[in-house]
Amino acid sequence: MMELAWLIPSLPAIAFAFMVTLGKRLPNWSAIAATGSIAVSFALFFFVFADWLGAKSFPHPENYTFVYSIDWLRAGDAILTWGMWIDPISLTMLGLVTAAALGIQVYSWSYMAHEPRFTWFFAVHSLFAASMLALVMADNLLLLYIAWELVGICSYLLIGFFYDRRSAAEAAKKAFITTRVGDVGLLIGILLLFVETGTFELSTIFAALAAGDLSEGIVTGAAVLMLLGAIGKSAQFPFHVWLPDAMEGPTPVSALVHSATMVVAGVYLVARIFPFFEASDTASLVLLSLGAVTAMGAAAMALVMTDIKRVLAYSTLTDLAFMMLALGAGSVTAGMFHLLLHGFAKATLFLGAGSVSHGSDKTDIRDMGGLRRVMPWTALAFGIGALSLGGLPPFGGFFSKDEVTLAVFLIEEPYRWIFLTVALTVGFMKALYMGRLFFSVFLGRLKPENEHAHEAGPAMLAPMLVFTTLGAVGGLLAFNWTDGYQGFGYFVFAGDHQEAFHPNWWIAAASAALAVAGFGITWLAYVTGSLRTDSIIAKVRPVHTLVANKFYVDEVYQWGIDQVMLRAGNAVAWVDRAFVNDIGVNGPGIVTEKSGTKLRLLQSGKIYNYALGMVLGFLAVAVAWWWAL
Amino acid sequence: MSSMEGALLFALIAVPFFGALVMVFFPADKHSLIHWYTRAIAFVGLVLAVYLFVTYDTDGDLGKYTVDFAWLPTLGIRYTLGLSGITTPLVLLNAIIFMAGVLVSWNVTHRPKDFFIWLTLLVSGVYGVFLATDLFFLFFFYELAVVPMYLLIGVWGSSTDFTKMEPAEGPGFGGGGKFDRPKEYGAMKLMLYLVAGSVLVWIAIVAVWAEARSATGEASFAIASLAAVEYSREFQVIFYPFFMIGFGVLAGLWPFHTWSPDGHVAAPTAVSMLHAGVLMKLGAFGILAVGMVVLPEGAEAWAPVLIGLGTVNVLYGAVSALGQRDLKYVIGYSSVSHMGYVLMGLGTLEVIGLNGAVFQMFSHGIMTGLFFAMVGIIYERTHLRDITVLEGLGKRMGVVGAFLAAAGLTSLGLPGFSSFVAELLVFIGTFRTYPLLGVLAVIGAAITAVYILRLMAKVFFGPISDRWADLEDAKPLEAAVGAALVAVLLLWGLYPFRIVEIIDSGVKPLLEGMGIA
């Protein structure tokens, strides 16, 4: 079965091709083709997984990965291949992506039912699933980059789904260009490694790294350059600006592409090339610092945003930064575990948010409140998702947050305490913003204008509740169950650092206490009303303004684009026109023409002019002769 | 012409050449007959080119692909044709773009007979340049491809006038200020430039011929025998730039590129397609197949300059495109930028870089043909090319928008389309030789994303104005042309194995002949 894993991305790709070419003629078949193909891929995942379990001597890490590849291109001495790499990291991603894509497509049947471009939505959705699946299975950096760009373009098309809305068109453009800037780094890093090792294949590159064939500078350089791509895709500071705007896309897109799967591609990439970060302390420190800055900034912004999807977007930024922190701290296990549980919880929350705006036509949380009365199932799902991502035990998000915090705790001095403080603070803020969001939307008094709001239908509720369940109980994966499975670290790990589950009670207690405190404070603020938020805001007005304006980062970038980049475009266009063209090209033309006009006067046709010329010439010759003598 | 393949090569040039001459006797008012006749000529070429491409034998003897007639033996001029791994895709490119160009020219009603005669002659010249293996005929065909351009632009072109334009709102779209460009200006400029380039090339050809004759005592214009002569290093270093700049002018080599945006913009759709799609490649092909082959040491000495100027092309073209407000100027400058990748690839003098350069010639040709075809449709429907005025067309022109987007995505190097592979090979070649320039080239591709997406967002997205309520989308014929071109881009973007195999089979012996690989 494992050698047929290429079918997993291929089926949605075929569905895409079908919908783009025949979708207009067979409109009723588009959703069936899309969902059918991803359902088969989901089923195939289990076969591949079972096969992998059977084929390798689990839990021992020998023969841990399987690679299958075909020639794609040969030029000169370069042979480029397309192949699959099946190991625990890719299996985790395969499971998450196929499950999320399937559930969210089912949800979209009903959510997108009245859209005129229903077929197009499903077509791009399928292409996205195909590229994302190819991305997580790629056995070489080139195929990874190809899939990486394809998920980027799908994201662009899906954010711009409502393309006749100016804001959507702008958000789509912003997303693609921002990530593209990071991709410049990624591609340069990949090419650098190709020049050094002569291949794009991960296994060969890792072998060269392990053998010490790469200099320290190259290792750090390649790691940081590829990290640029990762932080672009995963919307980490300073490339974080595109993700909140990406909420212009339909909500199922935000759920799948912009929270559960595509944006974690950056985290996946770092996990995939983790040996580089292991080999370079500088690169790891860069990763940690970016993660810390993004986590703090994004958590602060999540606290003050008022649009339901934007709060979720900033919370996604925070969680992605959390995963980066874990990887920077050296724990692929914690990073991937948080990735998995965050995926389920965030899918729940976005589908819940979609259900809320679908049922109430509201997007601003200040216009909501008490919605649990009219949409109880959504409230239940959203509540569990929020408590889980807020890091409250016993939900899944607590365990993954704990793993990350523990990983950060294990960083070596002198940075340990800085990053541990950050991790704990952010953990507290996660509880704060999740509490604020859930309480102000679903609890409290129901506003009269929201009484007509209605619960979503079963097609939307069912996937939502499935993700809720997965997110709620997913924490169980952390535990030591049998000799063969002693925690998530027994399955996903870097190099040969296979680790069994061993909790640190101090860290767990601290992070649980902070979560309880966070939810408690927001309970007082948004449910009982005994804590006045406006008086707190009034006390920290300048800070609040700064955060509510997203630290003015967007403004700085806009200024840079308008005043530097576009001005440069205008200036070069003008120079090309005025100098290279008008002076450089037309200049000689004009000189020729003008001098021709003047010289023409010499041939006046008047006999006395010629006579004068002859006399002058005769005199000149005479004088010259005289001089010569 | 003993083999069938030889006969096919002969026909490839002869069919359009004599076909155009026969068209002179057609009645000028039978428009439909003229259109169908030209389509038939284009189709014959397409069939031959596809056949040659599909059956091309990468390991076999190239001898069967020859045509050889004595023409002026005293000077060593022979009519010889040949095919190689490098020219096979380029011949196919020419055939595809000619077919597409003729089909989208269904709306040419102004003197169609003259239009198609010149167009067809031009195409026969292009085939000739790719196939001729004798420098005299190569040069003859080169001129045959260039001269009709003057009339095609001057008579059937369109003028641009930005003198009365309101300044654009918001940043960008400066477009180089207020200026006007009558089509006659574009035609004249293009002509003078290309003729100046030809003069340089001709000087170099005669110099090489004379030098070779004094060395071997035998007069010959055959590229193979000229390449076999050992020229002194000084001679090579002095005369290689004549080839590099002379042919480079036609390839849009910076700073001799300015004829190209003005020429593209003034030209009618089919001519823009052929011009940017195929003609600019003649320049790059000339540098490769004549300059580098005949004067390898000169090529090595000047390679840093070529790759450096190519990098300037990439960045300067991309940044200029960012500032344009006329759709066609954006694409014109984008061609300058993309030809930069071809020149960079040639400048690497390295097997992967050269593969990339040739593949990029093919890929850019198809892509830019698609671009101009779609922009031509927009211009025909709206009579506008001003980006600041056009908005939200996607609502009415979804098909045109989709094809334009496909061309745009190809242009910004999206994997799945063939330009990605071509540019990747150029990047690899450049990183192996001049890594810093490679970094700049990758950055150039990112700038491309900015101007392409800005154009798409402005012209196709956003709310549509009532003014475009009756706008007509692509007709079935136009949509078919678009779909065919997109299919070609996708085919070799997804599985480039075969085309690169063919190119590689031509590049390797070329480099071996130069004493490099």
Verbal overview:
The complex is a heterodimer of chains A (629) and B (517). Chain A is mainly alpha-helical. Chain A has 25 helices and two strands. Chain A has helices at 7-22, 30-55, 88-111, 118-137, 141-159, 166-197, 202-210, 216-233, 242-245, 251-260, 265-272, 274-279, 281-304, 308-328, 332-360, 376-389, 396-409, 416-442, 458-473, 505-528, 533-539, 541-548, 553-583, 586-600, 607-628, and strands at 66-75, 78-86. In chain A, a hairpin with a 2-residue loop joins strand 1 and strand 2 (78-86). Chain A starts with 6 loop residues before the first helix and ends with a helix. In chain B, a hairpin with a 4-residue loop joins strand 1 (66-72) and strand 2 (77-82). In chain B, helix 4 (112-131) runs antiparallel to helix 5 and helix 12 runs antiparallel to helix 16. Chain B is globular. The two termini of chain B are 32 Å apart. Chains A and B meet through strand 1, helix 5, helix 6 and helix 23 of A and helix 6, helix 11, helix 13, helix 15 and helix 16 of B.
* Tally of alpha and pi helices of chain A: 25
What is the total number of structural domains of chain A? 2
Please state roughly what percent of the residues of chain A sit in beta strands, choosing from under 5%, 5-15%, 15-25%, 25-35%, 35-45% or over 45%.
Answer: under 5%
End-to-end gap of chain A:
106 Å
Average pLDDT of chain A, to the nearest integer?
Answer: 87
Name the structural class of chain A: mainly alpha
Biggest sheet strand line-up of chain A:
1-2
Radius of gyration of chain A: 31 Å
